Amino acid sequence: MPELPEVETVRRGLEPAMAGRLIAEARVNRADLRWPFPPRMAERLTGQRVLGLRRRSKYILADLSGGQSLLIHLGMSGRMLVSGAQVGEFFHDHPAPSRHDHVVLEMEGGARITFNDARRFGAMDLVATEAAEAHPLLAVLGPEPLGNAFDGAYLAARLEGRRTPIKAALLDQRIVAGLGNIYVCEVLFRAGLAPGRLAGSLSRAEAEGLVPLIREVLSEAIEAGGSSLRDYRQADGELGYFQHTFRVYGREGLPCVTPGCSGTVGRIVQSGRSSFHCPLCQR
DNA sequence: AACTTAACCTGATCGC
DNA sequence: TGCGATCAGGTTAAGT
Prior knowledge:
- The chain has helices at 4-18, 41-45, 136-139, 152-159, 166-171, 181-191, 204-230, and strands at residues 23-28, 50-56, 59-64, 68-73, 78-83, 85-87, 90-92, 101-107, 112-117, 123-128, 238-239, 266-270, 273-277.
- With 283 residues, the protein is of the alpha+beta class.
- It has two domains: 4-139, N-terminal domain of MutM-like DNA repair proteins; 152-277, Helicase, Ruva Protein, domain 3.
- The strands form four sheets. It has a five-stranded antiparallel β-sheet with strand order 1-8-9-5-11. The chain has a four-stranded antiparallel β-sheet with strand order 2-3-4-10, covered by helices on one side.
- Helix 6 (181-191) crosses helix 7.
- The longest helix is centred in the last third of the chain and has 27 residues, at 204-230.
- The two termini are 28 Å apart.
- The mean pLDDT is 93.
- The structure holds a DNA duplex (16 and 16 nucleotides).
């Protein structure tokens, strides 16, 4: 599920239960997710104090007292469950173990963090904290979309001359790191750009104009996730899913929400992914 | 080198 | 109710 805003929401949800606390016991229930776990991961996590939780793109980094960091990616279906702790307004009891609980962290003080991932596209690795950015999965990433390095001049330069659709270019984590299928659809809708437009065909103004829209869409989604964390009403402590209101994503066949537009939201498939768009106001 | 497609997995949903 | 086809928010490896 998770794109950048969801991962940030998960990070914030984990913080009270993990930051500053000791991992009393780590349990690892299988040898791999997308890739093998690092050797002896459970032993290496047990007894470590979590100094803090960071996010880079769609990755969470838990910095540990021993100088290593736990790198976490949720893939498509990864979830984090917080139990045995107060989460917002509610205390969450430990749930019954379920089928795809792959890694469990018992925190000192009674909180339990459960990583559950049905499709197993997720990943975990251990990396030296000081060299974390050099990890192969992080080294290839483009700038953070909410950071200063991501601006109009940068994006325009990266799109220039590209013969790939703008949809694919914005999904390319090497260009900008953190967007996924949903938010690219939403960004292109707000920009009035057809997903099939070739990246290199955008005018300078169109390319630069994407930057504030990307920031806006992600910021709003993070804010929505934050509110869902604040009044957390789910009984199970599951982090990562929250209610969004999308303008085009998943709205195939429904009327375009642009005032005065008579279009109907359509769906095309680009590189195997659904692109929802309004054929009238996105050109 | 640029770009596209297939593959990795399971589960939920839809049409018959 | 059952069953197959389709789809799912990500990323990499293997194609063209």
